[in-house]
Each structure stands twice: as structure tokens, then as C-alpha cells.
Specification:
By secondary structure, this protein is mainly alpha-helical. The chain folds into 2 domains: 1-66, no CATH class; 87-143, no CATH class. Helix content is 69%, strand content 0%. It is built from 8 helices and no strands. The longest helix has 22 residues, at 106-127. The protein is globular and about 40 Å long. It starts with 8 loop residues before the first helix and ends with a helix.
Length: 143
């Protein structure tokens, strides 16, 4: 996601922890912090772990470990929200709207879309090319 470019893993993770700390203390939030806190609030299964502080900053998430990476999961939510807000790729806002109506919840629609986004990003990383927006959008339309 462009918003995190230039940051290392610990800095990016710390942004989540700091946003949640400020949110729970009812402190003022910057716009990005409010987005981070909203995503965290929708994932109560991560809250206790995020509140562990330093442990959350250094945790490793590997396929062999069998644990989902909460930062990746929440980051994909943020990416989908940005895509929907900007309608890029063109048509994704409509896909999200239809999925939200069908599933009865925008958050559930995002969960349905996460795998396709992760797959598009993985393919781009593997091939060394930018994500194929049209293939991604077509995959979303078949969900």
C-alpha cells in the first residue's frame, strides 16, 4: 500500500499499535490512525495480541507457523477500502457494493475480496511485474 511505502516492518506495525492506543485512550486521531483503529475494532480477535506491545512488533508469521498475519490481513482491508474509495481498478466499487448487498455487510464483502487481492499481489511479486488489475477485477466479478 502506498501509504506505508518507505517504512520498515516495525515502523508499520508500530503505527497500528499507536493508533489503537490513541483510540482506546480517546485521543485525537490523524485520518490514517482513524482508518487503522477502525480496522482493528472490526477484528476483536487481534486486540489482546496487539495490546501486548513489543511482542506484536517482533512476531514472525510464516506459512509453517500456521498463524495468520494480522498486520497483512488488516493491511489488505485498508487496501481494498482505498481501492473502493477511488474505484481503482475501475469497477471495483460496484463489485464491492454488490457483494456487500449480497452478504449484508461491507466488512464481509472485504473478507470475500481479500484472497483475490492477496493472490494478485503474490503474482505480481512472483513475476516482478505490476499487479494485473484486469485479471484481479475479473476474479472479483466471479466471486
Amino acid at each position: 500500500m502506498p501509504v506505508f511505502s518507505g517504512q520498515n516492518r516495525e515502523q508499520m506495525r508500530r503505527m497500528y499499535l499507536d493508533a489503537w492506543r490513541k483510540f482506546t485512550a480517546r485521543g485525537p486521531l490523524e485520518p490514517l490512525e482513524a482508518q487503522l483503529a477502525a480496522v482493528i475494532a472490526e477484528h476483536p480477535e487481534y486486540v489482546t495480541w496487539l495490546e501486548s506491545g513489543e511482542n506484536a512488533l517482533t512476531a514472525e508469521f510464516t506459512p509453517e507457523g500456521g498463524r495468520q498475519n494480522p498486520f497483512l490481513h488488516m493491511g489488505l482491508h485498508l487496501a481494498i477500502r482505498e481501492q473502493v474509495a477511488t474505484d481503482r481498478p475501475a469497477g471495483i466499487a460496484e463489485v464491492h457494493q454488490k457483494l456487500s448487498a449480497r452478504l449484508g455487510d461491507p466488512h464481509a464483502a472485504e473478507h470475500t475480496m481479500l484472497e483475490a487481492l492477496a493472490e494478485a499481489l503474490w503474482d505480481a511479486q512472483r513475476t516482478g511485474r505490476p499487479p494485473d488489475e484486469q485479471a484481479y477485477l475479473e476474479r472479483l466479478r466471479t466471486i
